[in-house]
Fold these 4 entries.
Entry 1:
Amino acid sequence: MERLLADTLFEGAWTAERKLHVSMFELAGNSAYDSRAPFSILQDSFGDTQLVGAKELPINSKSAFLELIEKATSFRQTAGTEKNDGSSRSHAICRIRAVNILPGVSEDGILYLIDLAGSEAARDLANHSADRMKETREINISLSILKDCIRGIASANNTPETSKKGQKGSYIPFRQSTLTRVLKHVFDPSGTRNSKTAVLACINPSFLDTAASKNTLRYANMLCSTEVKYQSAEHNPAIPKSWNNKFVRSYITRESGNPVISPSILAPHESGPQLLSIPLPQFVARCLRTKGVTERQAKAFHSKLWRLHIDSTRGSVTDKRNTDLIQQGASSPANVVPVTRISTRDLVCEGDMRTFKDRIRPGMVVRCNATVNFPGTSSEQKLVMILCPQNVVGKNMKDALGNEVNPSYCLSAHEKTERYLCAMILSGGLADSYEVSIWRQIVVHLSSMEAEVSLEYDPATRYYHMC
């Protein structure tokens, strides 16, 4: 079996387009082990299963693949039973991941080879120790849950579409066992990844084991001719993992800030899931290849993209609002302002080529230079939100420095029009977060303003983040 698989994997020209990575581990009860060392089975933000702590090795040849299988097999837990002197006491799993190294939108291919531990009848447990009986019970439970999952997915796929309306879907208990959690992509009804399953059933030709053989064949028969139907991943502007490359490029153009990060540099071929999978250092490095983009802007855009992704996986109440905002940003007329606003960016003046100093407005956030005094803070960035011109403020009003905002002396009318009453923006309690201190106000001269900054409000944390 191993040699047949090795011959299949390493023959043909497709190996030049893929890199193979292999991990081998075993499941005993609710625990997972790699070379007898425990590791964790977790779910990432994409809903995919991740083996945290398991070793994954690159394999470049048949000999290396066979050597790895032989070494991993030596670690597998076995023990003598009534029927088998070398009975497997764990489920052995070989996970082969084929990584696409050519530009494109295809996901990594994953192949699981699973050698299930054999079940045992109650009559075979009479002479077992307490530990052996516990192992057998855990094995039988995991196989029973696997059977229920197979029945559930078969039932769901054999139900006519016309009779599904108004009915609850079949319950598939894939979260109840470590084995079925590893195989989540096969049993999860909401999954969109296509997969195929082949089963090899081993039986004993002896007439003494006829009942056990019939039970094994009955178990395997449930998978025969079962066509698994998967939901297609429908495009949703508020769900980044559903984006194709065309929408990724348009999103980068609209939402990456000023200057606009080049979509052809950041995501020349990537889909939404692939863009999210880019490590932060590589993401920032790509952004910095666009002239004028700073590291802070690149990290802020990365955080913005990931906040949208996390909100979409939570089924947040902000999903519809995010969808509306993104769709309006893509297609609304320039003179239409969305009712719901979570960003300080000026949507009406989108595409206006004037400098920010020529289009000052209430609510605009700007970065000030070092000459501006921020009382009682040590903020690295001096950010303020513009409220109104100095000359419209009533008499006897003082700012956070104790100075009169609109004095009647020493300032000409023209000079007053170039000064603005602003609210201070201070660092928040989270990394790269900000909060508007609306009652702490200072007067800032137009010449002290360096650049416009876009902030976006996050309802979950109640902080603002750069976008």
Note: The chain has a mean pLDDT of 79.
Entry 2:
Amino acid sequence: QEWIRVGNDYVLVSILSGIIFGAIAAR
């Protein structure tokens, strides 16, 4: 179950990073 929690955290970070990168690239 712990690896599932880690996976969820990784997905969340990936999404946030994608949004930030997209915002920077949009400029």
Note: The radius of gyration is 12 Å.
Entry 3:
Amino acid sequence: MLALALVGLWRACRRRTAQRRAVALVLVRNAVLAASFAASAVAQAQTAVPVQPQFNTDRFSPGAGSADILSVGSASVPEHLDVHLSIFSSYARDPLRLIAVADSTQQVRLLHSQTLTHLGASVALFGRFEVGLTLPVLIAQSASSNDLLGALIAPGQGMGDVRLVPKAQLWRSEILAVAVAAPLTLPTGRGDAFLSYGSVTLTPELRVESNALPVRVAASTGIALRRGREFVNLSVGNALTYGLAGEIPFSWLGQRLAALATLAGEVELQQSGGVERPMELLAAVRWLLPGNLTFTFGGGPGLTNGYGTPRYRMFAGISFDPSPAIRRSMPKPPVMVQDVPMPAPEPLPAPADPAASADAPVAVAEAPPAPPAPSPATPAPAVQLALAPTPGLQRAVRDGHLALLVQVQFAHDAANILPVSLPLLDQVIEVLRSMPEIRKVRIEGHTDGRGKPTYNRRLSQRRAESVLRHLMAAGIDASRLRAKGFGADRPIVPNDTQANRAKNRRVEFVVLDGPQPDVAQQ
């Protein structure tokens, strides 16, 4: 009776669309084929008919890399042995439907809903490579309420295809990065649940990322190489993949947030039908939490009737970047030195005021006393630099090199130097001018422990380069200067209090080629 009813429904649809064939994921002739499956099942006393679709309807595959934007891969690579862990859950509504071309409102839901969890992990190697791994797990799935169509899909739980993503960065600069990746999937998933292609797939990709604008932009394109599969009227094979993503950091109520948006899809190379062109638009908000945790939530609509494109999708995820102490051995903190004399060609004449001489530092070069500088918003500890009278600066020994620690104030989440810090930088400029024997200095940017490590390193790099440009504009030879951002990888105190975090937000001027500290100072 079920077969007769479906055949009658097919004939009614054919009369309404006599001059156009009903196509989406099935033609009318495929409905007859499906009816024959049902009739056979009834004749065999409800014996199950094995169906192996062998393609994957899950179009949401959040990247395992630390800088990936949802399902669009990044060209950035973290530092050596940086680890990133993530878990995402997604809900897709009607990701697989039968649609009449003559009237797209006439649809039959083949797959009503799909809920999955994606487990991800990645590790960076040598600052140029990153390897990611994702494992999709089916939590729940509901088939069509139609008895015939619902029999074609296995409900319940199961695994999807394991995805391995090796990436190599080809080129990078302050504002641009280029990388290649080769996502590889293994046929570990359930084909009867539309979670597997049934064979190994490989997708060579080219990735480009830019930080030139306030918006971080990532784009990727590639070729998905996979064995051809057919299910009813759908042909799945080699395809052109594409993705475009953007990220805008902002703050709200004192919280560090970021707005994300992605557009991703693919086009089958051997087919031109709409069902072979899935496309999806997603938007999300990322919340940067203490302890290197990140919470992301969002959703978006499907833009086409392509397979695996839902009416809408919702998702949420948590990612974690282990602390530097876990990822790698912590660098030795700088040894703080207070009022210890440095080698000096000539001593500075004694101050006229005896009370002032008790607190004056010992200088290594004759230099006129600088006027007192206004204290910054978050003042440094009361340790003065021995190179010149420089209130607000610190002196330290970093890995055997003399280092000057300055708490330069920047605009929030930006590299713009605030005016309050200009007097401090003027003192550093005066030191470099008066001591030509300092032939090379590395300007190091450091942040506190809040936020994602990758973001902090990128921000600290921009800030260090901003200071470098300021020194160059003041006449310091560029050949004497280098810039490097370390993010929160080298704290001088634990990031457990607001005061300590303020101390860790600093700029260091490390003398790479010039006067060396005494043995007593190290």
Note: The longest strand covers residues 107-125.
Entry 4:
Amino acid sequence: MISDFIFGRVLIIGDLLLDCYIHGSVDRISPEAPVPVLLRAKHSTVPGGAANVAMNAAALGCAVDLVGLVGQDSSAHEFRRAIGRQPSIDLTHLVEDPDWVTITKTRVLSGRQQIVRIDEEPSVVVAPAAQERLIAAALVAMDRADVVVCSDYAKGVLSDAVLQAVIQAANLRGIPVVVDPKRRDLSAYKGAQLITPNRKELAAATGLPVGSDTEIHFAALAAQEQFGGDVLVTRSEEGMTLLERNGRMTHAHVPKSEVFDVSGAGDTVVATLAGMISAKADLRTAMVIATNAAAIVIGKLGTATVSRAELSAALKSKIDRDGVIATLAQAQAMIEAWRQHGACVVFTNGCFDLLHPGHIALIQAAAREGDKLIVALNSDASVRRLKGEERPLQDEQARAIVMGALRDVDLVVIFDEDTPFETICALRPDIIVKGADYTEDEVVGGDVVKSYGGRVVLADLVSGRSTTSIVRKMKTAPKTDEPISK
């Protein structure tokens, strides 16, 4: 899927950080004070802040120009050494200022547990002369950029003057701008295409609650009123929500993963979005891919990157049976890729416990309605709630494998709710197909699909065919001790 996209060149401007890690072990308390004593084992440094965005973009396959401010201190030397490991990042646009202290964050860890963080930051603001040099460097680099990223860590590089100059220049050139914001006043980023606040930043900027989906919706609308462009809200384990300027809202679920460290995850998201935008992907596709990248990076310790190979493998690893059985997040990514090629996506759902001719007729009818067919299966728990404790007769994986083996089925997803409403909202199929024993008004999700121009189709049923009737017949069939003939 990722191989379908050719990434372009990304200009990244923002606050540059050096992330240092001191690793060791603690097995005693100091006699001098009630504090742990760390036996140091190793020390490592990696680029952070806007530089981590650059590292992630380069790891995905983008060519990168990095603009930012460093001092002339030992930390600046170490920063250049650390980021120099990635040859795809052009460092010729870095600005040095002898009065600037290179921002350093040192984390002390025992195993995977962070004990303390030590920060070194400048005590002065960015000088006007340095701001002018930053603007000049950005304008030179912009001549070959496909997308611009403003990575704001509120450390002073993205001043009003720098922001306005960069965004205005990008607008004149028709280059999209993505902003990872830190300011409460989002109007400072007007002119950019997209901002990516997290839940906390959205609440701070709007003064609104951001707990539920509805609250996120209203807060994103308020942010959009300030900013004027597209708003993508990162919501940790709840995924991401995109509010486009046309009012369309889409949610992407994040794949389940073990969380070791969330530091730098926002950088990975912004880098992935920028890379996808540089490859001419639409924002919904970019968001789905970015959720998968975030799921990978939070499983790593410390400031880390996600490579194109890792992302491609992750997108494939949770899809079984040659890409037919998928999680909801994987299905979203697959569907967006289909839509890049103009495919019409059809959806149907059911328990499909014992596959019979009635099921086959429904699947065939659904497949005839479009180019790609998604079948949503009730999970085992969902079937039990609907049909009773004796059902299903086959577990969800067995049912998914059987369904996925049908040549008319392109994708199988399993949902745990009583109805597929949430799945339909997430996947946004063009057509829903159900049996003619329903009316259009009774079809779950039908109103959702119709709201964006889709339609509901009622397929003819094969009379006398149902799993319930088969089970009843099996229970009432006379028992025999005769051996089964071979």
Note: Residues 128-142 form the longest helix (15 residues).
